[in-house]
């Protein structure tokens, strides 16, 4: 194992962009090799998503122990999660512990962004220009930049005019934000909005929620991990890893084996009641598969959830606005703790932006078609330019042009790991690979990418390029799986790019889960990596 001490124009072997969940694992893997490597990270600490999204209420909605690393049993024994769904501070502590425990911090240059990366055919290397003006030349470039890391503000005028405090959930400051007695607006009701709204509602003087699309929010059912559970978790470390890595999407939950057509509506409801009492993603991934694929079962489950929302919200005219008109699961559903009860508080109001859209932000507050409301704090929970957004923000130029142009009409890749025309560039968690519990997907992808690089080095190659045929086959597979699904029919989710003005509406996620990705990797290996050109 070796590393380059500083950012200069020496040639290194591998440059990793990002020190979040995937970047840390990638560094751990590189540290087992004799390659020269370095990571650059925009934040002043590690964690990626869990560094930037430090807003009140931010926490896992995958079980903590399913989100953690599995590369070290000692680490798993040394670290104990306090809750089934850990909060952001604990997650950030965990990631820092990992980095220090395995001495990875010294490989990371903090507080710099990669502005551009350009491939040189004569050098067979990438030159990355960093935001501090320095450059790094590297034979291989590995992006660990996440799929939800390019924060996006509402496209309304006046954002800079507001004279109060304004924060984006994905760019939350390290200092404490005091909401006590403040008039607060939250724009956006995705997973971040739902978490922050629930966390601050009791503290504020007034809370106004600006909602464009209501979501199907179901209880997270978080709880402390008992001593007995800790012992069980410690004892089942290997089994848990095997279970997760062979599951559909890297979660502990798996679809019900029962055929709902053989059950009565009462039996289905009884099962759904049990799901609502179960933790996290059970409502989605522990459901009948048919709820996600058949519009009638989907409508029945959605109607069941509607009764739950209406029972929790006292004012039915508010409940009318909170009940989605899309089916459950066609848009990534948030998980909540006390969310719907927030709307029973006298100082909380809900603005339906479909009826009264935001026209502009002013020095004092927010103007909708209904008039102006004044605020001390505006929270933008308005999401991200998802999946390809973080790639578009780096000027990546390969053999025939930029990656942004190459993916302009939609990404095309070999197994989400690489694209033709961009030799020696690999993506960990990027387009057309993700779709599940991110650390498990990224573990799989990271192992694969490092195997491809190792194979190239074993063959004495200095250039590894994804093949066009393999790219066409994987892209066709991604769209084929997605075609006709309830998600594709609705095309409401950020995985289609619909939340980003001007972005081509096309599917950027992957519906085959960890299972599909694993099968593809195995096929590529069995085919002696013919999907890649080594030279
Ligand atoms: O972002 P989002 P997020 N005018 O895009 C609204 C993960 N995550 O940060 O739905 C008005 O879901 C937008 O409205 P609409 C998780 O994968 C996990 O909340 O586009 N409104 C929506 O309501 C999640 O899915 C956890 O109509 C505008 C909201 O802003 C993903 O991150 C916690 C608007 C954005 O919701 C993203 O979640 C948090 C505009 N111009 C996040 N633009 C865990 O629990 C956007 N909106 C692990």
TrEMBL record:
MF (Gene Ontology): oxidoreductase activity, acting on paired donors, with incorporation or reduction of molecular oxygen, NAD(P)H as one donor, and incorporation of one atom of oxygen
Signal peptide positions (record): none
Gene3D superfamilies according to UniProt: FAD/NAD(P)-binding domain
Domain of life: Bacteria
Pfam families attached to this UniProt entry: Pyr_redox_3 (PF13738)
Keyword list, A-Z: FAD, Flavoprotein, Monooxygenase, NADP, Oxidoreductase
Name used for this protein in its record: Steroid monooxygenase [Amycolatopsis mediterranei S699]
Record organism: Mycolicibacterium parafortuitum (Mycobacterium parafortuitum)
Organism lineage: Bacteria, Bacillati, Actinomycetota, Actinomycetes, Mycobacteriales
């Amino acid at each position: 194992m070796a590393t380059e001490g500083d950012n200069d124009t020496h040639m290194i072997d591998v440059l990793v962009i990002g020190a979040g969940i995937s970047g840390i694992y990638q560094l751990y893997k590189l540290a087992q090799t004799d390659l020269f490597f370095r990571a650059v990270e925009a934040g002043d600490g590690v964690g990626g998503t869990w560094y930037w999204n430090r807003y009140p209420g931010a926490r896992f909605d995958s079980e903590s122990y399913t989100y953690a690393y599995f590369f070290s049993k000692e680490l798993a024994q040394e670290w104990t999660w306090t809750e089934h769904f850990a909060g952001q501070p604990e997650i950030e502590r965990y990631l820092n512990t990992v980095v220090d425990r395995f001495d990875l911090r010294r490989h990371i240059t903090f507080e710099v962004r990669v502005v551009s990366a350009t491939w040189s055919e004569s050098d067979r290397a990438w030159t990355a220009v960093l935001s501090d003006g320095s450059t790094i030349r590297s034979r291989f470039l590995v992006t660990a930049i996440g799929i939800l890391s390019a924060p996006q503000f509402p496209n309304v005028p006046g954002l800079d005019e507001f004279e109060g405090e304004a924060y984006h959930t994905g760019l939350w400051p390290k200092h404490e934000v005091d909401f006590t007695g403040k008039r607060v607006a939250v724009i956006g009701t995705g997973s971040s909005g739902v978490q922050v709204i629930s966390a601050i509602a009791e503290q504020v003087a007034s809370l106004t929620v600006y909602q464009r699309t209501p979501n199907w929010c179901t209880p997270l059912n978080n709880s402390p991990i008992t001593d007995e559970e800790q012992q069980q978790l410690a004892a089942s470390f290997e089994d848990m890893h095997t279970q997760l890595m062979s599951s559909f999407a890297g979660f502990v939950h798996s679809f019900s084996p029962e055929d709902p057509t053989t059950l009565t509506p009462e039996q289905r409801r009884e099962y759904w009641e049990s799901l609502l009492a179960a933790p996290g993603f059970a409502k989605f991934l522990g459901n009948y598969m048919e709820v996600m694929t058949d519009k009638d079962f989907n409508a029945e489950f959605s109607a069941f959830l509607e009764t739950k929302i209406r029972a929790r919200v006292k004012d039915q005219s508010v409940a009318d606005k909170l009940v989605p008109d899309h089916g459950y699961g066609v848009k990534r559903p948030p998980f909540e703790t006390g969310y719907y009860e927030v709307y029973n508080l006298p100082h909380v109001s809900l603005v339906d932006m479909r009826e009264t859209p935001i026209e502009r932000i002013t020095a004092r507050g927010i103007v909708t078609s209904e008039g102006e409301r004044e605020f001390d704090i505006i929270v933008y929970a308005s999401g991200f330019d998802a999946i390809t957004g973080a790639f578009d923000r780096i000027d990546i130029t390969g053999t025939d042009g930029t990656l942004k142009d190459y993916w302009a009409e939609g990404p095309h890749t070999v197994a989400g790991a690489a694209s033709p025309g961009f030799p020696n560039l690999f993506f960990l968690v990027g387009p057309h690979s993700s779709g599940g519990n991110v650390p498990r997907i990224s573990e799989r992808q990271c192992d694969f990418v490092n195997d491809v690089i190792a194979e190239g080095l074993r063959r004495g190659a200095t250039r590894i390029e994804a093949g066009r045929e393999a790219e066409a086959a994987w892209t066709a597979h991604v769209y084929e799986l997605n075609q006709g699904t309830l998600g594709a029919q609705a095309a409401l989710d950020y995985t289609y790019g619909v939340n980003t003005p001007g972005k081509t509406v096309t599917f950027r996620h992957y519906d085959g889960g960890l299972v599909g990705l694993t099968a593809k990797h195995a096929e590529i290996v069995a085919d002696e990596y013919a999907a890649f050109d080594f030279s």
